[in-house]
Structure formats: structure tokens, C-alpha cells
Amino acid sequence: MVATPLIETARAKVNLTLEVLGKRADGYHELRSIVAFADFGDELTYAPSEAFSLAVSGPMAGAIDGANLIEKAVASLAPLLSQGGAEAPSGRFDLVKRIPVAAGLGGGSADAAAAIRAMLRARPDIRPDERQVERAALAIGADVPVCLRQETAFMGGVGEQVRPLPQPAPFPALIVNPGVKLATRDVFAALSAPALASAADFRRDADLMRARLESEGWRAVLLAGRNDLEPPARRLSPVIDDVLAMIDAAPGCWLARLSGSGPTCFGLFETADAADAAARAIGARRPSWWMTATELGSR
Description:
Layout lengths: L5 E18 L5 E20 L4 E5 L11 H13 L9 E6 L10 H16 L7 H11 L3 H6 L3 E5 L3 E4 L6 E7 L6 H8 L10 H15 L1 H7 L5 H7 L2 H11 L3 E6 L6 E5 L2 H14 L4 E7 L3
Parallel strand pairs: 3-4
Antiparallel strand pairs: 1-2, 2-4, 2-5, 5-6, 7-9, 7-10, 8-9
Helix pairs in contact: 1-2, 1-3, 5-8, 6-7
């Protein structure tokens, strides 16, 4: 077992597109989404020890409401890392929380995925099957599997189906959160999606998406895409209208859209300088909003 502290970055997840195909018989919604990761996120330090502990600091620490998914990650991974009489994983986790909470950026899922990666690194002598790890990740939450790899991907089902996509050049971006919370369940309820019309074929859809990206290019595909949760989210939180309008009006912005179930929005820009300028301009007008200029799709 590795004894020295291990550091993992839990990068913020952004849904560049999000389509809801319909409501399944099990009550969940069948999704298709292009997901990218920002070059900023939370920082998790893991030090193996006999007892579990979690300390949270950082600008968003006070916004965490309810149980942290890191503890759930420890419990979910324990059966895989206690094989052959090995001790179940535990230890001290120190989380610097920078990603806004309940914001559509997958912060909790990213933290859980970071904990899994750290615990696996700490036990190089035990190599669980990749599918077992993915199942353990899914047991924590629908976004955890895609957050494990932190690479641009096509996601389906409720999040358990993940296919890596050709990695694009990093997109200069601005991410803006107006400081209101928006529950995912409320947004889906407001969507009132119809029943899934036919059996979904993720493998076919992933192959079609890859072919479109190769023939049309990233910009054309993203401009033609949408987020089906954006209309109900805007009805529930009208401030999203203001966020999107300000991003869209910023010089150099070529796409403004809601991420996930919101309320965080993002804009893609021609250059990093344009994204930085938009952050300064919008920040001056709305100083209470959280925002950051970043890159999406970088590793």
C-alpha cells in the first residue's frame, strides 16, 4: 500500500449537449450527452489510514448540503480492494471545494471519482477489473463513471454508458453560476418527458455521433445540438435567461448553453482572451455571480 498522500484533481463536468430521449419503464430518463471537462476543479488529497475522515475547505465548502459522496465511494470500492484478505480501504480525505454545489457541474460525482482513483493508486498490488470499478462508480451516482476518466465522451442511459470521443482542441470557455440552487429532480419533473418510444441503442448512437464529428466537425455538431433540460430549467429559475443573454452577447462567444440541469451556464469563445474579457465584463455587472474563464476538453 502506498503510504504517502496522493493528490487528485476532480475536474468540473460540463454537458455540451444533452438530449432526453424519453422516460423509461423503470422511471429513469434515457439520455444522450456530449460531456467535456474543465481545466479547473476540486482538489482531493488522500492519505491511507485505519480510520475514515473527511475534511472540507475551500470557497464552496459551506454550500455542501447532505452526505458527501466521498464516503459513499469508500463503501462502494471496499469489496474490490479487500480481496484476498486485504484490508478494506479507508483513510483521511482532505477536499478543497471549488466547484459550485448543486450547479449542474457534477462536483459531487467528480469528488467521488477522484476518491476512487486515489484509492486505486494507493493499492497498486490489487487490480480490480475495469468493469467492476465502473459498476462500483455507478452505484454512487449516474455521473461518476464518466467522471472517472475525465475525458470528452458520449454518455448514454442514465450515465452508465460512456464512449470516449475524439479529443478536440481545448475550447476557450466561460462558466457562470448565478448562485441559486436547482434540484435535478425538479427540472426533470418540469420537463414531463414522454415515455420512451422505442428501445434505445447506445452503441448505434455513439457510432453515429463519432461519424458526425468526423464529417461535420465539432463546432457544427455543437451548434446543432441542444440541452433538453434548458427550457424547464429556465421556467423554474428565470435568472438563467439573464445569464445566457449576457454570455451570448459577449464578443467572441459562438455558443451559450445551460450545463446539465443547471443553473450553471457556459459559453464557448473564439479565444481565451475573449473568454477572460467576458468574465471581467459580466463580473463587473453581476459581482454576486460565480464565474471562471477556463478551457473545456483539455487533459
